[in-house]
Amino acid sequence: MLNIKNLHVKLEEEDKQILKGVDLTVKAGEVHAIMGPNGSGKSTLSYVLAGREGYEVTEGSATLEGEELLEMEPEERAAAGLFLAFQYPVEIPGVGNMTFLRTAVNAQRKARGEEEMSAGDFLKVVREKAKKLKIDADMLKRPVNVGFSGGEKKRNEILQMAMLEPKMCILDETDSGLDVDAMKLVSDGVNALRDEGRAFLVITHYQRLLDHIKPDVVHIMAAGRIIKTGGPELALEVEHNGYADLLAGVQ
Amino acid sequence: MALPQAKQDALAARIAGLSFAREGWLGAARAEALARLSAMGLPGKRDEYWRYTDPAGLTVAEAPRAAVFDASDERPLFDGIDRLKIVFVDGVFDPAASDDLRLAGVEIERLATAGGADIHWARDLYGVLEGRGQVPVQRPLAVLNTAFATDGLLIRVTGKAARPVSLIYVHNSDTSDAILHHCVKVEAGAEITILENGPAAARFSKVMEVEVAEGARFHHIRAQGRDHERRAVTHIFARLGAGALFKSFTLTANGVLTRNEAIIELNGDEAVAHVAGAAVGDGNFHHDDTVFVTHAAERCESRQVFKKVLKNGAVGVFQGKILVKPGAQKTDGYQISQSLLLDEDSQFLAKPELEIYADDVKCSHGSTSGAIDEVALFYLRSRGVPEKVAQSLLVLAFLAESIAEIEDEAIAEDIRSRLEGWLARHEH
After folding, report:
1. For a surface tag, which of B62, B114, B137, B275 has the fewest beta carbons within 10 Å of its beta carbon?
2. Which residues contact B83 (CB under 8 A, 6 or more apart)?
């Protein structure tokens, strides 16, 4: 599904290398977790994959089902099946959540040569999916993320994911700012989407999210590289011992 | 103080070709206005009130040529709204294209034929609110309008108007120079919506004097047409009684020069006045909103909401003032003027002012100019929304607060669709 090879990325504006040769392969149906200390490049990796400006790829490649992602515009990546759940979902005053969702769903369908969803069908689907995430009608009507609590914003990200049905989902610290109940709601939302044809890359600081969203593979990222890969037990190890031992091992 | 010779000459040249109707009460009001105009002369760019907008195109003797624009690729604005249509072509009433002027709850007379008739209410309004609006700042172009308007409508609303009254201004001649003056009196408890649309003329001067009596409601929505080359100066003078409501929204897309002034007096307690505008300009576009709201009674509310989207060297101006007179306690005044600059060539000039002589009031104002929010743009694109669509969504979102001032949802939707059309034509 997702194939990252020797990815080197620096900041566009300054001479600062953030990713220094990331290699990662995620197969369809798998859930991978990336853990790592602050500043290790986890969020940069997610932004670079989604196509945010401000980064320069100096070496390497990233493909989604064989297609080179890094050459595409952000909207083309989305239409190709990539989805990034933001660590800090953006507030957009003046754009209704529902309008936003419908515009996005139909834009992707159009880009893939599919028929647009009718207003009636869309409403039905969105209401049903929103209900599962405990997103009420009022939240759907309000401007995108404006006045939403931290938990509401994250649930709104998962709702977008559920509506867009991407193949490759990247969750960037989706657990940050969530209380236990919200974490459960969000995790249930993610787990409901687990499917043979879909893959997840879950970026997190803490093991606790991985109690709810059980990963197949866990990677530890530090200083712009993946320094260790293992099974779910690796996350527990980090939880108990911190990153210090792992970091010492590679330095 | 005598006017300098150069100013006298400029004024003489400007009014030389204009017709001056002397008959009846209207003739007297015009003569009085002409006397005032002769004392003040025309505005010049050195006047403080015209610091950001050069009035030359509005004051030269001949109207600068303006090509007629063919807007037939869009269906006419307000097409789906059930309304009474009154059409002016280059400032001349067109009876064939207009509906019958009878409307339940409303009396409508033409200014051109009203001079001889004894229309008491109009005598108390014509040139009167305009005259009151000359203090503390002179507005000579409005005085000129009072003296020389060739036509207009006298609208008296006695009940709830059965339908909106829709004034349609057609521009058909490259050199037309139209001067129209309307008076609207909304009697106590009555209600009307007035729609205006169209570019009107190569050069258009319009004054609307509006008296909103106790508990009456006045809604005004206008769109100034798509002509690129036209010039316009418009004034709305409004006076509100206790509990009255006044709401005015203006959409301006294109036009080389537009100066829209709104002068509003809140004279009765608990009156509410909202004046809003959305302006979008690409290239040779200069748009000036000049607003003066006076709070002269208690517990009144006023809002000024002006948004501008500018690109390719377009210029936006906002001069807005809230004056709170002594004793106007519990005033709630709000003013926001914002521009979205889509490139680095465009300009927004703002002069927000508050002048407050009462101690128990709430007034706020804000003025900003900025570019499209890149983070929001990326967020939308990351969900698959193409860049141009995402940009349009954000531009409309920026304008939303001003459009929200339109109460009627069907009319608001019509205005929104115009903006979408403009954005689609001007994306690159």
Report:
1. B62
2. B163, B164, B165, B166, B195
CA–CA separation, B190 and A135 (whole Å): 43
Report d(CA B264, CA B301) in Å as an integer. 12
Domain boundaries, chain B: 5-372
Q: Do B381 and A51 touch (CB under 8 A)?
A: yes
Q: What's B212's DSSP letter?
A: E
pTM above 0.95, yes or no: no
- Cis peptide leading into B136, omega within 30 of 0? yes
A78: closest chain B residue by CA: B384
Given CB atoms, is A129 within the 8 Å cutoff of chain B? Answer: no
Chain A residues with CB under 8 Å of B384 CB are 75, 78-79, 104-105, 107-108, 111, 164
pLDDT by residue for chain B (428 residues), tens only, comes to 689 999 999 999 999 989 888 888 999 999 999 999 999 999 998 999 999 999 999 999 999 999 999 988 999 999 999 999 999 999 999 999 999 999 999 999 999 988 778 888 999 999 999 999 999 999 999 999 999 999 999 999 999 999 999 999 999 999 999 999 999 999 999 999 999 999 999 999 999 999 999 999 999 999 999 999 999 999 999 999 999 999 999 999 999 999 999 999 999 999 999 999 999 999 999 999 999 999 999 999 999 999 999 999 999 999 999 999 999 999 999 999 999 999 999 999 999 999 999 999 999 999 999 999 999 999 999 999 999 999 999 999 999 999 999 999 999 999 999 999 999 998 75
